[in-house]
Known about the structure:
Blueprint: E1 8-10, H1 27-44, E2 49-61, E3 87-94, E4 101-106, H2 111-125, E5 131-137, E6 154-158, H3 173-177, H4 188-203, H5 206-213
Parallel strand pairs: 2-5, 5-6
Antiparallel strand pairs: 1-4, 2-3, 3-4
Amino acid sequence: MGSAESLRHVDPGSTPQKSEGGFARGGGGVQKNLEDAVAEEAAKHPERSVEVFASDEHRLGLKPVTRRVWAPVGERPIAHGHHRFDWLYVTAFVSPASGETFWYVHDGVSKPFFAALLETFAREAKAGVDRTIVLVIDNAGWHGEAGLSVPDGVRLVFLPPYTPELQPAETLWALVDEPIVNKHIGTIEELDAIIGERCAALASERDIIKSRAGFHWWPKIAKPK
């Protein structure tokens, strides 16, 4: 599970080194650390823009995603489903400042897989060529620095523990889930197709993504001098 071969980049055209520690708990501490990281990277490579992305993973399976719905008084709505524990994962890399997103669908998570995913993201985002990317992630075990190869042009910054409210990518999952809410999905292949199409559509909806993930304190894109 989670091998490099399992990685599938969702192409929007195909369908409609160092980490930071010691954050204060709260947006102010994170904002200060991100601003410092952007300034340092801009000083190192004045010829490149510096952009702060955020990344997170979302697990989806054949167990139904349920939400409340309106119904006539006295009637209970029914959502059909079968509790089968088959899963796939969606990873989003999002620029809250611009709404740009990179989406990947895969079948598991591991540190080797995350390293391969970082390489793929860096290549497709042209990190180290057109821009430097400061990437904000949480402290999941497969994100840990030990033994993790970080591509040129990418700098990792870790959120404080237990602060999902500071992770802009967390805001995207309700959008991803939309086409499968209160629906029975028969196979993991069918789920993969639905979610892939959804992510591809969202990749072109920068205004919607920015309205969700564009935290007011998030650093703006630092342009080259």
